[in-house]
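Subject line: Sequence and fold of a protein, written as structure tokens
Area: Proteins and the way their chains fold up in space.
Start of record: The labelled sequence and token lines come straight after this line.
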Amino acid sequence: MDPRFQPISWLQKKKFQAYLVGNQARNNLLGVKYDPKDIDIATSALPDQIITILRDQGIIPGVVDDQFGVVTFQWQGNEYEVTTFRKDIYDTQFNHIRRTPSSIEFIDDVKQDAQRRDLTINAIYWDPASEQYLDPVSGKKDLKDGVIRFVGDPEIRIKEDPIRVLRAVRFKFSLGFKYDPKTRKALKELGHMVHKISAPSLKKEYQKIQNLPNYHLARKELRLFGVLPRL
């Protein structure tokens, strides 16, 4: 196992489930390089249990967000974000600030954790020790077929967090994929909702799209979806 993934084994030795999710799992399946300094771990361990395990390794946590179950730390030059499996519960009118569900419920079911994620290709869980993948929402098939698809109902995913519009566009153009028809329909109908997002959050995600070599194509799509004004 890659030495950078040792924190996975620390959690597993304490009988917790622990997986790489997102960047590492997706790109490993695609056979492309991933950012070793941006390592996301999903686990059944609660934040205080994660902190205890880190301190046993002589590591002082960085940011600890007990509400969302997120613990960050640095180790051997790498940056880690460890998140407890959880269920995000939103009010049915979606009268919330971005990334702030009505309530959070910590769970120990990885399949349920997958349901809160944005895209199927970002909901693949990889155990680098056993080289096994958990694929609750068929993200591996979408990777193989080159499809960008929201997890579950695409309209609900966007209403929960409109920044997902920009993420969908970014992944489409960075990977050279195509949209699932239902996902594209939701993007076109609800893309304007990104304007509810705070300016700093919007700018951060938009800059990632601007850095793409095919930004001129992505820009046309952002206009089509109502994110940018049409000329």
Observations:
- The first strand starts at residue 18 and ends at 21.
- DSSP finds ten helices and eleven strands in the chain.
- The mean pLDDT is 92.
- Residues 92 and 160 are 10 Å apart (CA to CA).
